[in-house]
Design goal:
Elements lengths: L2 H16 L3 H17 L3 H28 L20 H9 L9 E6 L5 H14 L4 E5 H13 L3 H7 L5 E5 L8 H14 L4 E6 L13 H12 L2 E6 L5 H11 L19
Parallel strand pairs: 1-4, 1-5, 2-3, 3-4
């Protein structure tokens, strides 16, 4: 490489560092060599550089959003056993994952069902699908978030804490009905619902139907007001199954159900067959 080319290359490296174009910086020499060899026009060379940067930024953005989502590991739509929950349509779930028809309206999704029906799995799977589609999601147990908001209220920072949650297109509150009927807990939870109403979406999982929500909120008026805000523009999915998947797995282990035959270890014989 000539002195002039070396100087130009060094300038390019410095400029890419200053502009924070890390993907282009790591690949531009290889792409430039290919461009020179194949005689690309300048526009094609520039497009290749920008496509590399865009792809890298998209990957890093996904990794960042996935980390902040705090989703349970291994819960995906591919791993959800729809055949065991026949009242749930995969097509409807995939429409929710697309997100376009409801997130922009601040609509909600409410998952009701018996314990062990797979509500948390399905909620996390929807969340993962939305992250893959470029959305920002946060998954949390309702009691954990309520405790954080209570601390914020004591520190006179509740408004700020609620505002920070606005960055999430979807807030997934798992085990909603496990919140105790405590005035402080109920108050911050009600404020969260009111703050996000028709602005930002929520997905709730609960074992108890609306008729039992008097155990969560301290008075009937607050209960009705909370339900009214949540069900307005909401998709409600009921997952009432006869047998918990946890019980089913326990029975399978007891019966000695092992790995599928296609993955089982084949026992070696002393003499190979002809």
């Amino acid at each position: 490489m000539s002195t002039t080319l070396s100087v130009d290359a060094a300038r390019v490296e410095l400029l890419l560092t200053e502009l924070r174009l890390s993907a282009i910086k790591s690949t531009w020499t290889r792409i430039a060599e290919q461009s020179d060899k194949e005689g690309w026009p300048a526009a094609r060379f520039l497009a290749a550089l920008m496509e590399t940067e865009m792809a890298d930024r998209g990957r890093r953005r996904f990794e960042r959003h996935l980390a902040e989502a705090r989703l349970p590991v291994g819960k995906s739509i591919a791993g959800f056993e729809f055949e065991l929950v026949p009242m749930i349509s995969k097509a409807q779930v995939m429409a929710l994952v697309a997100g376009d028809s409801w997130l922009g309206k601040g609509a909600n999704v409410l998952l009701f069902g018996t314990p062990g029906a797979g509500k948390s799995h399905l909620a996390a799977a929807i969340g993962l699908g939305l992250v893959e589609n470029g959305r920002r999601v946060m998954f949390t147990r309702t009691t954990d978030l309520v405790q954080r908001l209570q601390v914020a209220r004591r520190e006179l920072a509740l408004e700020s804490a609620l505002a920070k949650l606005d960055k999430y297109d979807l807030l997934i509150l798992d085990d909603f009905a496990y919140v105790t009927k405590d005035q402080a807990e109920t108050s911050v939870l009600f404020e969260l619902i009111g703050t996000r109403y028709e602005r930002r979406s929520m997905l709730l999982t609960a074992n108890q139907a609306f008729g039992q929500w008097g155990k969560i909120f301290p008075d009937q008026a607050m209960t009705l007001a909370a339900i009214d805000r949540l069900v307005h523009h909401a998709t409600i999915l009921e997952m009432n199954v006869a047998e918990s998947y946890r019980c089913r797995e326990a029975l399978e282990r007891k019966r000695g159900v092992g790995r599928p035959a296609t993955r089982a270890t084949i026992k070696k014989t002393e003499k190979a067959e002809d």
